[in-house]
Amino acid sequence: MIAVDCTNALAIKDKLLVYVADKLEALPILKSDKFLLGFLDDSAIDKLDVIYAIEEFLESLDLRKNFQILSKGNDIKIELLDEMDMEEKLEKISDSDSNPFFECTHCGFMTMYEEELKTHRLIHYI
Ligand SMILES: [Zn+2]
User: Fold this and answer.
1) Contact assessment for residue 26 and residue 43, using Cβ atoms and an 8 Å cutoff
2) pTM of the prediction?
3) Which of 58, 69, 86, 92 is most exposed by smallest CB count within 10 Å?
4) Are the C-beta atoms of residues 18 and 25 closer than 8 Å to each other?
5) Separation of 73 CA from ligand 1 center, angstroms?
6) What is the number of other CB atoms lying within 10 angstroms of the CB of residue 87?
């Protein structure tokens, strides 16, 4: 299990979790300001893959320079370095939510409710 600590990066936590879990096809477990990533069959998750996925996510939002990724043991911590421009960039993230539907990337299942999609997605990991 790899823990990703988003205490200082709460604004991006939810989207980051979905992105990284999808990318690695890992099962995310939310724990307040952190999330854990693991595979259902208990095989080891490569921390570097997680870090690459986080970097990719930040780059896709043009936020790579605003965050620092720290790695220690099985923990990864994401720290907000620079709040400049953050607001504008985060607005762009929420803009991309204007589509009211959440779509499953595995089978195209669509729902209006993010929670329902999360639950639905679990069937692909079993
Ligand atoms: Zn699906």
Assistant:
1) no
2) 0.69
3) 92
4) no
5) 33
6) 9
106 C-alpha vs ligand 1 centroid, how far in Å? 5
User: Which tens digit of pLDDT belongs to each residue from 35-64?
Assistant: 999 988 888 899 999 999 999 999 988 889
Output the CA 13–ligand 1 centroid distance in Å: 22
Centroid of ligand 1 to alpha carbon of 23 (angstroms): 14
Give me the count of residues in the chain: 126
pLDDT in tens, 2-39: 999 999 988 889 889 999 999 999 999 888 899 999 98
Structural contact between residues 15 and 6, judged by C-beta atoms closer than 8 angstroms: no
Distance CA 43, CA 25 (A): 12
64 Cβ contact partners less than 8 Å away, ≥ 6 residues apart = 55, 58
User: How far apart are the CA of 103 and the centre of ligand 1, in A?
Assistant: 8
CA of 123 to the centre of ligand 1 (A): 7
